[in-house]
Amino acid sequence: MTNEHQLEELRAAALTDIAGAASLDDLERARVAHAGRKSAIAEILSGIGSLPKEQRGPVGKGANAVRAAIDAAIEERQGAIEAEELGSRLATDPTDVTLPGDAHPLGALHPITQVQRELEEILLGLGYRIADGPETPEIEDDFHNFDALNTPAGHPARSSSDTLYVEGHPGIALRPQTSPAQIRVMEREDPPVYVIHTGAVYRKDDVDATHSPMFHQIEGLAIDDGLTLGHLKGTLLHIARELVGDRESWFQAHFFPFTEPSIELYVEWTDRHGRQTSMELLGAGMVDPNVLRAVGYDPERYTGFAFGAGVDRLAMVRFGIPDLRLLYEGDLRVLEQFA
Ligand code: PHE
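Above: the input record for the complex with phenylalanine. Below: its predicted structure, written as tokens.
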């Protein structure tokens, strides 16, 4: 027969043990002894059903109260022990690996980089390789910037009012276009060649809403047996479709020293004021035989095409960015919109 006195004793014994537990292991032993499946209180609780009816209520109530008091004491003691253990660990080793770390806000790719990667994905999908690094320098000599690209002495692009030459190093300039990357690749490799290169280019332009002395281009080059203007147009239309969807696009004849014939690709575009307009996506053409000769390729055997697009311009159109300068000011209020 369980009486109040017995329950009180069970409770006092349990609370004494719990209060005396010096470690989590001690506490676990006390828990098993006083509140485990085989503890006296558990036995009382499971035996309630076989008690005479009139005892079930008071015994059950008393036993449950003791059980609750034991659980509460265990929980409280556990918190105290953990705090003590942490305190003594910190006294010897001040590194607390359990503390939450400093939150570093995650950045995002710059819109120019996003468009660059998108273009690269499209072209990698067509089997192009990315040329980059020391293979395609930004500081170039006259041969790679101009001579090998069939751009004769006296051409306006070669003047120091257009191109940024390195002071004290005649004939060395910051490349005004990514096209010298074509020459670099062809010097190192024999056909078939299918490469792209994206990077910074430099021109002596004043900064305004659509100009910057530094901007980015993506260059593509394909040299193989039997490549035709048809292959070039098919490739460019594929790029346009991937980039701008089902918009109307068309070619226009143009001139570049290093391609013949040369074309430009335009797409129909709705600007940010909702005005229907057109936008030049890129310049391209069949690689001029003089360029093939300059790198030691046989123009009787190989043909190919090249194209170059302004990445910043594409990013502006893509994201509806009205002013190029916004891309270069590093203003988080702008950049966070592209995360
Ligand atoms: N390099 C040219 C430009 O900067 C673009 C171009 C690249 C044209 C390749 C034809 C072939 O305008």
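Notes for the reader.
Residues 53-92 form the longest helix (40 residues).
Residues 177, 179, 219, 256, 259, 283-285, 306-308 surround phenylalanine (CB under 6 Å).
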